[in-house]
Design goal:
This protein is mainly α. Helix content is about 75%, strand content about 0%.
């Protein structure tokens, strides 16, 4: 029997590894940078606001990260995750926030180890 963190680690490693193998370096950097920034944004602004911000930016790396988080948390897709974050009652919202933050811990680690993206590597405008 695997823990939730072990399941997250296995799924997220596969996602990040596939991204590193298939995508361009710019998208990987933006994906990695966003994975470093999201936990802080969630703690500052809240889950629903942060996810809406990432979607509104329309950045390919951020969009891919939202899709990947939705898959790991077993949502039907990014839209389902966004809807749940907007409409959940407080206990479900708090649980969803904890789950997203737990998953982001692994995204950050694999962004560093697999993608080679360190915290602060890509700025808000996409430049170093």
């Amino acid at each position: 029997m695997l823990t939730r963190n072990q399941k997250y680690a296995a799924r997220i490693f596969q996602q990040v590894k596939q991204l590193a193998d298939k995508e361009d370096k710019d998208k990987c950097k933006k994906y990695g940078s966003m994975s470093h920034r999201l936990p802080v944004l969630i703690r500052t602004a809240g889950l629903a606001q942060t996810l809406a911000f990432v979607e509104a930016r329309g950045d390919a790396g951020g969009e891919k990260l939202l899709e990947d988080i939705a898959v790991v948390l077993k949502f039907k897709g990014k839209e389902s995750l966004l809807e749940s974050s907007r409409e959940a009652e407080l206990p479900e919202y708090m649980l969803l926030t904890r789950q997203v933050l737990a998953a982001l811990t692994w995204y950050k680690r694999f962004a560093q180890s697999v993608l080679g993206v360190e915290s602060g590597a890509v700025g808000e405008d996409g430049n170093k």
